[in-house]
Amino acid sequence: MPGSYDMQDLLLSDNGDLVATSDGDLSVATIDQTTRQELILAIYTLLGDFEAVPSMGSTAELFRGELNTRENAGLLKKEVIRALTQGGIFSPDDIGVNVIPIAVDKVLIKITARNPLGLGDQTISFIFNYQSGLELE
After folding, report:
1. Number of domains into which the chain is organized
2. Distance between CA 123 and CA 99 in Å, rounded?
3. pTM (predicted TM-score)
4. DSSP secondary-structure letter at 30?
5. DSSP string, 53-94
6. Up-side HSE of residue 102: CA atoms within 13 Å toward CB?
């Protein structure tokens, strides 16, 4: 079973910064927060940049400069699924990815991660601008 289904981690902000409690200790993420963090890190991290786990990350940023076509949306969807399932972060059966055109140069990437243990199901959205790249919605 992928570890992202029942593990906890240190809490990170959406920018990847550690979050501290009011008394200065590092915050521990709940299982649903850990699931969200895993989704964000897998998509935002450029494949190969995280030396400890070189297979973690996506090549979504390589779509910058491309046209917003049905074919590119399909390729982007495949890349998101690959990034989320590579190395066992999530099972392919537990990931839903929709890529929806919202402007001439933008798509909405909606990701749903189902946790088969009933812990931490998450839906997050990114905007991918073919000119400027990824943004968390």
Report:
1. 1
2. 13
3. 0.83
4. P
5. STT-SB-GGGGTTS---HHHHHHHHHHHHHHHHGGGSS-GGG
6. 15
Instruction: Give pLDDT, residue 7.
Output: 66
pLDDT at 2: 52
Residue 37 DSSP class: H
Find all residues with CB under 8 Å of 123, minimum gap 6, and list them: 110, 111, 112, 113
Give SS3 for 136: strand
CA 75/CA 53 separation, integer angstroms: 23
Q: What CATH number does residue 53 fall under?
A: 3.10.450.40
